[in-house]
Design a protein that fits this description.
Layout (H helix, E strand, L loop, with lengths): L1 H43 L5 H14 L1 H4 L18 H10 L21 H18 L20 H4 L8 H11 L1 H4 L6 E2 L5 E2 L7 H10 L12 H15 L14 H26 L1
Antiparallel strand pairs: 1-2
Helix pairs in contact: 2-5, 4-5, 4-9, 7-10, 9-10
Amino acid sequence: MIMRLLKNLRNRRVLIGPFILFGLALVAFSVLTLTQSTAKAQEALVSTNPNDIAAGAVLYSEHCQSCHGYQGEGGVVGGAPALVDKGAAAANFYLTTGRMPLNAANNEAIRHHAFFNPAQIRELDAYINALPQITGIGGSGPTIPSVEPLCANQGTLAAQSEKGCVTLSEGQQLFSINCAQCHQAAGSGNILSNGNVIPSLNNANITQVAEAPLVGPKPMPIFTELSHAQISAIAQYVIYLHHAPNPGGFAIGRIGPVAEGFVAILGGFCLLWFAARMIGNRG
C-alpha cells in the first residue's frame, strides 16, 4: 500500500512539469493573440492574397469589364465611372448592397440582394484594391473601414476618459446634423426631387453604414469632413436604431407625424362611427 502511494506521488510529480509548461504556453499564446487581433482584423478586411486578387480579376472580366473597362479605367459605357482609384470600400459597398452589377448602365443603382456570395465579394474587393498597383496609377480610394466599438459607459463625462470607443449620444447628434435630412430621423428613408430615392437604413449592416460616407453613393455626397471616430459613432447609432425602444407605444414604421396622424384620425373616426351607431340603435 505504501509503495503504491509513493509510486502515485512520483507519477504526479512527473506530470506537473508538462502541465506547467502547457499552461505557460497557453497564457503566452493568448496574450499574443489579443495584442495582435486588432491589426489582423483590419488587414483581414481587404485581402492581399495573390490568389484572391487573381480570382477577383476573373470575376471582374466576366461581370464588370464591359462597363468599367479592362482594368477599371471606365468610360466604356456612358455613366460607368473608373474604378482604379475608388478603393475597396466602394467595391464592397456596391457589391454587398446588391447595387452592382447593373442589368443596364442607365439603371438606377438601388439596393437588392447581393449577386455575389461573400467569398466572391472578398475576391472582387481584393482586385479593385490592387488596381493602383496593377495599372501603375498612383493613389487609391478608401479601404473598408473598421468601426470603433461602443464605450462601456455611455455617460458623456465618463466616456471621455475611455479611448478607442464612441457613444450613442455623439452618434445621434452627428446623424441628426448630417444624415436625418435625407434618411429621416429614424433612418426610414425618403424621396427627394428628380426621382431620387433615399433608401431605408433598416437593412444596412454596420460596415455598409461606415462605408457610405466614404463612398458617397448618389445622390449622397462624400463626407470628407467626418473623422473615423465620427463615422463610427454614426454607424453605431444606426445599428441602435434597428432595435431602438418605443416608449410612446407602437413604432408605426417610425416614419413621423404623418403616419401617427393618420392612425389617430382613423381611430377617432371608428370611435365616432361606433358612438353614432349606438345612439341610433337606442333612438
